[in-house]
Design a protein that fits this description.
Elements (H helix, E strand, L loop, with lengths): L1 H18 L47 E6 L13 E7 L4 E6 L5 E7 L2 E6 L5 E6 L4 E4 L5 E5 L5 E7 L7 E2 H6 L5 H8 L3 H11 L4
Antiparallel strand pairs: 1-2, 2-9, 3-8, 3-10, 4-7, 4-9, 5-6, 5-8
Length: 209
């Protein structure tokens, strides 16, 4: 009885090992689907697929929010595909802000490298959690919740973030409301903002209607 059980166990172990796939480097030549990118052929995978050098370069903060995000997601860093994580660099000039936004596909962890950043999020029961973060401080932002980062120091600020998905997704609240053709009267009705204020914000952010 022992010998047959041994062979059954050996077969199960061998089968499970045979089904293990070490990685699924993104094939960026193929379309992105619900499950992410298709896998590159192993014969065409190189060490460069597992290395990303862009996070050492400061982002361009000459814009309306005085901030820049440099992503290292699966589209930029193919080796992340299927691994359940990604990275980004956050540069904030003096007065810079990352407006209220969500990542529908991932939770986020942020660590401050330089400067002072006020960061926080709003829970689904509308409780607000925010904190002023100094160099070396870290904060997490649960998946799907509105959150923000503001440079609250006198100089530039730098942070690195990680996500629990190779493609966390992004929706910025201000852009969703004011950088499109969402009719002014509907924005006003659903936000309780004066129509004149809505039109002004649409003018600033490039929205119409």
């Amino acid at each position: 009885m022992v010998i047959p059980l041994f062979f059954v166990f050996t077969f199960l172990v061998a089968s499970s090992q045979a089904s293990v796939q070490d990685f699924c480097v993104a094939d960026l030549k193929l379309p992105y689907g619900p499950a992410g990118y298709s896998c590159k052929k192993p014969s065409s995978v190189t060490e460069n697929d597992f290395v990303f050098s862009g996070l050492g370069v400061p982002g361009n903060t000459s814009n309306i929010i005085s901030a820049a995000v440099t992503p290292a997601f699966d589209a930029q860093f193919p080796g992340l595909n299927g691994l359940g994580l990604s990275l980004a660099r956050l540069d904030l000039a003096t007065g810079g802000v990352i407006p209220m936004h969500t990542h529908p596909g991932a939770s986020e962890a942020l660590i401050v490298i330089q400067g002072i950043i006020c960061a926080g999020f709003i829970a689904s029961d509308n409780t607000v959690y925010f904190k002023t973060l100094n160099k070396g401080d870290a904060m997490v932002f649960p998946q799907g919740l509105l959150h923000f980062q503001i440079n609250s120091g006198k100089g530039s600020a730098l942070a690195f973030v990680s996500f629990s998905s190779p493609n966390p997704g992004l929706q910025i609240l201000d852009f969703a409301l004011f950088k499109n053709d969402f009719p002014t009267e509907l924005v006003s009705k659903t936000t309780f903002l004066d129509p004149a204020v809505v039109k002004k914000l649409k003018g600033v952010l490039g929205g119409t209607n």
